[in-house]
Design goal:
The protein is an alpha/beta fold. The protein is about 20% helix and about 30% strand. Bound molecules: flavin-adenine dinucleotide.
Length: about 325
């Protein structure tokens, strides 16, 4: 059954799929509802329900503070309308989907271990895989409440292949279910693409990719996409890992010409007995140390844990006044 959603003072839209959250329904309808992680962690999709009824999928989602909850705020990614509703939220064109997200069933065709805790998963759908480099999809691991966001490591393709690099998180329900319970041949629900940290093809600036741990996947996609741009920007690729055994980005970029792509691995702690004469420390420190100044001459793409994202934002926005339009990132909440 269709539900009509009215946005106070703005355009309305129809929710065409009963099981959709408000956020997914809005984006499928081409409405620019603000969002970032789509999985309840960031709070960017907060809104007010003015009229109507909605179910809350994850009442304890960390994207809402106690104060938000007292003020009646809700998260669009965790709200499912029960009928027609009126909401209050400020939409913006920048959040309109560049590629309309689509829910589909995909089949695992390959699972390949890259490091002790990172594995490449390749799924295949029946339709061409449409997304921009740097975007993510929502996967539904078996027996896991909610969905999990994973960034594509490959490029859009006609074969329907969606490739992810996923880290096994200790005690994480979704990632462990993917590692232990999903075997080649098995079907899974995938919904996407989502995300604003995609490669901008209209910039003449050099590109900096900064990957922290499992943030590698979207950075590989952005770098591979940039290598195919007719403008041939130079690419500085920082691959941050704990030890040399945790590094795996270099193999994916081995064919890139050295005069176009510079691969800089950075280790935050080396294992006992490990020989390493490359960069050390936190990856953002290496960025500040190695890149030629001024930093506002580059486009920056980065993905990884929230602390790394905060440190890079501080480096770029506070210490170096890099304009916001040069900065594109995803926090792996
Ligand atoms: C935009 C984005 C892109 C990402 N890309 C990657 C990637 O390429 N590779 C990678 O390894 N990781 C990626 N992540 C992290 C990934 O989505 C998971 O957070 C991570 O795998 C841990 O999930 P888990 O289920 O194992 O851990 P858990 O601790 O069980 O769950 C972690 C996350 O799942 C969600 N969640 C938890 N409980 C519930 C619930 N009851 N209902 C609904 N949701 C719930 C929350 O968002 C929580 O932060 C990305 C995250 C984001 C936001």
């Amino acid at each position: 059954m269709t539900h009509d959603i009215v946005i106070e003072g703005g355009e309305g839209f129809a929710m065409l799929k009963d099981e959709d959250t408000l956020l997914r329904g809005a984006l499928r309808a081409g409405v620019g509802l603000p969002h970032e992680c789509s999985v309840g962690g960031c709070g960017a999709c907060r809104f007010d329900l003015v009229e109507g009824e909605m179910d809350t999928l994850w009442p304890d989602a960390p994207g809402l503070s106690e104060r938000d909850r007292k003020r009646g705020k809700r998260l669009a990614c965790q709200s499912r309308p029960r009928g027609n509703c009126t909401i209050r939220v400020r939409c913006s064109d920048e959040y309109k989907p560049v590629v309309p997200p689509r829910a589909q069933s995909v089949r695992l065709v390959e699972k390949r271990a890259l490091t002790a805790d990172m594995t490449e998963f390749t799924f295949q759908g029946d339709e061409p895989a449409a997304f921009l480099p740097g975007q993510y999809a929502l996967l539904s691991p078996p027996a896991t409440p909610g969905v999990r966001a994973y960034s594509m490591a490959n490029q859009a393709n006609l074969d329907g292949l969606w490739r992810f690099i996923i880290r096994r998180v200790p005690n994480g329900r979704g990632s462990n279910a993917l590692f232990d319970e999903v075997q080649p041949g098995q079907q899974l629900q995938l919904d996407g693409p989502y995300g604003q940290a995609y490669l901008r093809s209209d910039s003449a600036r050099d590109i900096v990719c900064i990957a922290g741990g499992s943030g590698l996947a979207p950075m590989l996609s952005v770098a591979q996409g940039a290598l195919a741009l007719p403008t041939q920007p130079k690419i500085h690729f920082f691959d941050g890992a704990r030890t040399a055994a945790d590094l795996c980005g270099g193999a994916f970029l081995a064919d890139a010409p050295a005069e176009i792509l510079r691969y800089i691995p950075v280790l935050s702690s080396s294992a006992p007995g490990e020989a390493w004469d490359g960069e050390t420390g936190f990856v953002h420190q290496a960025v500040g140390r190695i890149l030629a100044q001024p930093l506002d001459g580059y486009d920056f793409y980065f993905a990884g844990p929230p602390l790394m994202i905060e440190a890079i934002q501080k480096l770029l926005m506070v210490e170096n006044r890099v304009p916001f339009s040069h900065i594109h990132f995803d926090r792996f909440l």
